[in-house]
Design goal:
The chain is α/β, with parallel strands linked by helices and 222 residues long. The chain contains nine helices and nine strands. Helix 1 runs antiparallel to helix 4 and helix 4 packs parallel to helix 9.
Length: 222
């Protein structure tokens, strides 16, 4: 099943089984965010991606500059392991990893949750790519994709035992938008996907297509 289909199926099931008014609340808040979020400030195609160094779940420091020495990078921001849409996306990217790696690409998944939470994401989804912790959303902010969760959603997350202060280690209630960037080795952004609707994600096929373009013609087809 394609990522888009998986996300749609989960959304339909959630809307069927969610507490009364919950799905409508979430949709309304997405539309409010669409009205006020400055998407023009997010990193776009042709921009230079900000360099960063972040810890993975083992405490190992991973830098974008170092990874780019060996090939382009797929930098994806996700909300956290508590978000089912994020887990669906990460598993889809894991399935595409062999094709991405064959084109020289590597995946970096970034969330504001604490490193031990990143470990849970790695284990739960059997991920074989870098999963990094951006505590305080410092890197997310440099990419222009961070927003503050409104009070109505904070209350809903408290009821669901998903209060962000305990997950992210700060009181900001900030999250990154679902955003994925393909970054070429010179740090130029070749593909930028930013969406205020966390129920939608960039398809892995689009990532592969961009990586093929970056790789250029293969031998015998120049």
């Amino acid at each position: 099943m394609r990522l888009e289909e998986e996300l749609a199926a989960f959304r339909a099931e959630f809307e069927r089984t969610a507490p009364s008014g919950r799905a409508a609340l979430y949709s309304a808040k997405i539309e409010e965010l669409r009205e006020r979020f400055p998407l023009k400030d997010a990193i776009a195609v042709g921009d230079k991606a900000p360099d960063f160094t972040l810890p993975d779940w083992r405490g190992r420091q991973v830098s974008l500059a170092t990874l780019l020495r060996s090939g382009p990078a797929v930098v994806t921001f996700y909300r956290g392991g508590w978000c089912p849409y994020c887990n669906i996306q990460l598993r889809a990217y894991q399935r595409a990893l062999p094709e991405i790696a064959a084109l020289g690409g590597q995946i970096i998944a970034i969330s504001p949750q604490l490193p031990d939470r990143s470990l849970s994401v790695v284990e739960k989804n059997a991920l074989e790519f870098d999963v990094l912790s951006d505590v305080g959303n410092v890197v997310g902010r440099s990419f222009g994709v961070v927003y503050v969760l409104p009070e109505e959603l904070r209350a809903a997350m408290r009821l669901n035992d998903k209060a962000l202060p305990g997950i992210n280690g700060d009181e900001s209630w900030e999250l990154p938008l679902p955003a994925t960037f393909v970054v070429a080795q010179d740090r130029s952004v070749a593909l930028a996907y930013v969406d205020v609707d966390y129920r939608r994600r960039l398809a892995s096929e689009d990532i592969v297509t961009t990586l093929r373009l970056l790789a250029g013609p293969t031998d015998g087809h120049a």
